[in-house]
Amino acid sequence: MAEVVHMIDSEVFLAFSTYATIVVLKMMLMSFVTSYFRLTKQVFSNLEDTTLVKTTEDRKRLVRVDPDVERVRRCHLNDLENIVPFVVIGFLYALTGPDLYTALLHFRVFVGSRFVHTVAYVMALPQPTRGLTFGVGLFTTFSMAYRVLTTALFL
Amino acid sequence: MAEVVHMIDSEVFLAFSTYATIVVLKMMLMSFVTSYFRLTKQVFSNLEDTTLVKTTEDRKRLVRVDPDVERVRRCHLNDLENIVPFVVIGFLYALTGPDLYTALLHFRVFVGSRFVHTVAYVMALPQPTRGLTFGVGLFTTFSMAYRVLTTALFL
Amino acid sequence: MAEVVHMIDSEVFLAFSTYATIVVLKMMLMSFVTSYFRLTKQVFSNLEDTTLVKTTEDRKRLVRVDPDVERVRRCHLNDLENIVPFVVIGFLYALTGPDLYTALLHFRVFVGSRFVHTVAYVMALPQPTRGLTFGVGLFTTFSMAYRVLTTALFL
Questions:
Q1: What residues of B are in contact with residue A31 (Cβ under 8 Å)?
Q2: Which residues lie below 8 Å from residue C101, measured CB to CB, with a gap of 6+?
Q3: What is the pTM of this model?
Q4: What is the CATH topology of the domain spanning B1-152?
Q5: What ipTM did this prediction achieve?
Q6: Residue ranges in chain C assigned as alpha helix (H)
C-alpha cells in the first residue's frame, strides 16, 4: 500500500469505479422491480400508497404481503448484504496496487455473479444456481479482503 | 479522472464529505426513532428486550409487530437502499473533478430529498410526496453515475 | 483536511483499512450463520431452496418463519445499519488527519463493540448488554462524524 497516491488515477482505480458504479446501479434497479410488482399486483406496505392505483374505498385490502414482492425485496436485501462489502473491500483492494489483470478478473467475476444471482432469484431458478452465484461473489470479496489484510495490516 | 490526486483536497471533496456525513447521520437517526416507538408503544422483536420496560410476567405479549414501528423500519431500509448508492457513486463522482456549483447542486438536492422523504414516510403524508422525493433522490444519483461512467469507463 | 494526499498512505489509513475490512468480514459472516440455521433447522424463504435438504414432497412445509433465523437476520440488518455508517464516516475521518492513537482507539472500540453486539444478539444475552454495545458503536461513529464536520465543513 506504499504508492497509494499514484494508484488512485491508475487503470485499476478506473476499473473499480466502473464496476462499482455498474453493480450499485444494478442494486438500485431492484427498487424499480419492486415498484413494478407492487403496482401491477396492487400490493402495498403503506395505506397512503394505495391512492396510486385506487381512489375509492377498499383501499385497506391492498395493504398486504405478496410472495412475489417479498422475493424481490429479499433479493434487494441480499444485494445490500453483498454489494456493500464488495464496494468497501474492492476500494481498499484497488488501493493496494494489484495487477490490472487480476483486479479486472475479480471485478468482472463479482459483478457477473451478482447479475446472474438476481436473475436466478427473481425468476426462482432451481438451486443450486442462486447458491453458486452467491458463493462466487462471496469468494471474490474474500480473495480481495485477503490481499488487503496481507498488504495493509495495521492493528 | 486524470487529476484525481489534486481533486481529493478540493472544495468538491470537502462538500462531498460534509453532505455524505450529514445524510449518513440522518440515516442513523432512524435507529433512535425506532427505539422511541418501541419503548413508548412497548413493542419488541426480542424477548430479552422487554426487560427494558417490564420486569414482571406477560413479557411475551410485548414481542409483537406494530404498524408504526414497521413503518419506521421500512423508512430505515429505504434509506440504506438509497443513501448507500449516493455515498458510493457520489464519492466516485467527486473524484471525476466536476464543477463545484454542479456538484453542490447534486449533493444538496439529494440530501434535501432524503430529509423530506423521511418526514413524508414517518408522518404518512399523502402520496405522491414520498414517491416524488424518492424519485428525485434516484435521479440525482443516476445523474452522478452517468458522469462517472462517461468520464472513467474502463471495462 | 488540507493534506489529504499525504494522509492516504499514512498509518491512520492503513489502520482504517484493516479495521474496516475486519468488521465488514464480520458482517458477511452473518450470511453463514443464517445459512447454518436454515439448513440445520430446515427453514427456508424460497420454495426452490428446499431441494437443498429434501427432494420428496412436503417441501412447501419448509417455507416458513423461524424465530432463531429471524434473530440472526435482524442482527445482520443491524450490522448493515451501523457498520456502513462506520465505514463511510471512518473513511472521511481518516482523511482529516487525526492523531494515530485517537484513530486507533475509535476503530478498536467500534469493531470490538460490534463483535460483542453479535454475540449478545445471537445468544440472546440479557439486556442491557446488546443495548450498550449498540450505543458504544453509535457513539464512536458520532465522535468521528463530529471531527469530520468540524474539520471539513463546506455547505
A1: 81-82, 134, 138
A2: none
A3: 0.91
A4: Four Helix Bundle (Hemerythrin (Met), subunit A) (1.20.120)
A5: 0.89
A6: 4-7, 11-41, 67-95, 100-122, 129-152
